[in-house]
């Protein structure tokens, strides 16, 4: 009897980011949730780095968020940007030195007294599964102090989830995958 042939398992898109993500996942204006000329437009930008602080050039980020009034959008059209419809979702591949930029709006609070935030997902080399985190706006310190997620974290870890407002009004949020000042990442229970 002949021995059974060895099976070679190949990673699927759910197990690794590349090399296939560059072919089909980025799309035209994926980083523009709102047109840059809109008076409510704000730039969300930063750098993604590994545990040694080295930029990660082959990663991709997605964001989801409420609009500036705290409404969660339900419109279609995220993949075909028309420059007018805010769908609350965007995707961007980082550049060759790990930088990313989204044009979006400051999200409003989805409920009175709640801290506004943007959901962020990271896809990158070496990650078997994507990572989830939040980007909180820095201004409403009372809402930040009362946020259940932030309150559950040690004080020194909270700052990794709060963006910095720059002089030009943009939001800076750097992502560190490991090491000192590692960004807090979230897990969600799997559905049965």
From TrEMBL:
Provide the alphabetized UniProt keywords.
Dioxygenase, Oxidoreductase
Instruction: Please name the Gene3D superfamilies in this protein's record.
Output: Aromatic compound dioxygenase
Similarity annotation? Belongs to the intradiol ring-cleavage dioxygenase family.
Q: Start and end of every Intradiol ring-cleavage dioxygenases domain? A: 18-179
Q: What is this protein called?
A: Protocatechuate 3,4-dioxygenase
Q: Which GO terms describe its molecular function?
A: ferric iron binding; protocatechuate 3,4-dioxygenase activity
């Amino acid at each position: 009897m002949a021995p059974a042939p060895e099976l070679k398992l190949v990673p699927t898109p759910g197990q690794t980011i590349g090399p296939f993500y560059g072919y089909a996942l980025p799309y035209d204006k994926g980083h523009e949730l709102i047109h840059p000329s809109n008076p409510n437009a704000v730039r969300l930008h930063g750098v993604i780095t590994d545990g040694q602080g080295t930029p990660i050039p082959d990663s991709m980020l997605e964001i989801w968020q409420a609009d500036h009034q705290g409404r969660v959008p339900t419109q279609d059209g995220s993949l075909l940007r028309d420059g007018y419809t805010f769908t609350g979702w965007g995707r961007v591949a980082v550049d060759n030195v790990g930088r990313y930029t989204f044009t979006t709006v400051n999200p409003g609070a989805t409920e009175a007294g709640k801290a506004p935030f943007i959901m962020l997902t990271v896809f990158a080399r070496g990650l078997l599964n994507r990572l989830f985190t939040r980007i909180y706006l820095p201004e409403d310190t009372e809402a930040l102090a009362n946020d259940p997620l932030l309150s559950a974290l040690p004080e020194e870890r909270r700052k990794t989830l709060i963006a910095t407002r720059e002089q030009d009004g943009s939001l800076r949020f750097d992502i560190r995958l490991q090491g000192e000042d590692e960004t807090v990442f979230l897990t969600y229970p799997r559905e049965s």
